[in-house]
Amino acid sequence: MIFDGKERQSASGLFQEIEALQDGQTWGKFLDAGTGTHSIGWIGSLVTESWTAVSGAEAHAAQVADAIAAKRRAADRIIVGNWADPALLAGERYDTVLADYLLGAIDGFAPYFQHRLFARLRSLVGRRLYVVGLEPYVTGEPDSEAGRLIWEIGRFRDACLLHAGEQPYREYPALWTVDHLEASGYRVIAAKRFANRYKERFVNSQIDMCAPRLARIADRGLADALAARGEALRAEALAHVVREDGLRHGFDYVLAAEPV
């Protein structure tokens, strides 16, 4: 599989790439298989017959409902469910299915289910499946300063989540994803990757999300040490962002696949 490459300008740029890959075809009935406020906002801007959005958490589904309330139609649905449940959307079919960072997020709801995800979605895909993912960046120490900072922020975040009893995301490489799509009854028709440039928002959001988790750790000495490490990472990373106009490291990817 040959990956075309370009620098990712923004998250919305990935959706623009999907629009280009759609190449004028109608979206029809649309399934947002791992919904979020960003993806549902984009889907709400498209001309669709109807859409169904699936979330694994009640609170997250409520956020999505609030975000799309002004554009939601009578036929549009937001459903709370788990893809490990065979009854979820059983017998339904959609012209277009979006799995927007779903592969990485699913570990928090159905651990070890990733290798079955695309086979699970296969009966729901009428024409086209789009997969948006992130190349893992918490494995293997990078050899660049920017890469090391992103790697350390990711490992810090995951350590906080694990100590608080939560499950971190588990991202999978694009080539792994292509292999599992093909093994699950799809033909991959396009594969593009986008070089990432992380800025202040990423740095602050990743470190700030740890604060409520650290508050739940019983060992206050450990929690205080982690908090201090997070602030040291924040200062170092933000200084690099200012100096180099971002932390350039890693890739997002977009895959387009069709049922065989």
Could you explain the architecture of this structure?
The protein has 260 residues and is an alpha/beta fold. The chain is built from ten helices and eight strands. It has helices spanning 11-22, 37-44, 58-68, 102-105, 114-122, 145-163, 174-183, 200-208, 211-214, 220-244, and strands spanning 4-7, 29-32, 50-55, 77-80, 94-100, 125-134, 186-198, 247-259. The chain has an eight-stranded mixed β-sheet with strand order 1-7-8-6-5-2-3-4, with helices on both faces. Helix 2 links the parallel strand 2 (29-32) and strand 3. Helix 8 runs antiparallel to helix 10 (220-244). The chain is globular, with a radius of gyration of 19 Å. The two termini are 17 Å apart.
Query: Strand portion, in percent?
Result: 15-25%
Assembly of the depicted chains: single chain
Q: What proportion of the residues is helical, as a percent range?
A: 40-55%
**Helix and strand run:** EHEHEHEEHHEHHEHHHE
Q: What is the topology, as strand order, of the major beta sheet? A: 1-7-8-6-5-2-3-4
Distance between the termini: 17 Å
Number of E-type strands: 8
Radius of gyration (Å): 19 Å
Unreliable stretches (pLDDT < 50, length at least 5) are 1-11
Mass-distribution shape: globular
Largest sheet: 8 strands, mixed
Class inferred from helices and paired strands: alpha/beta
Mean pLDDT: 94
- Helix tally equals 10
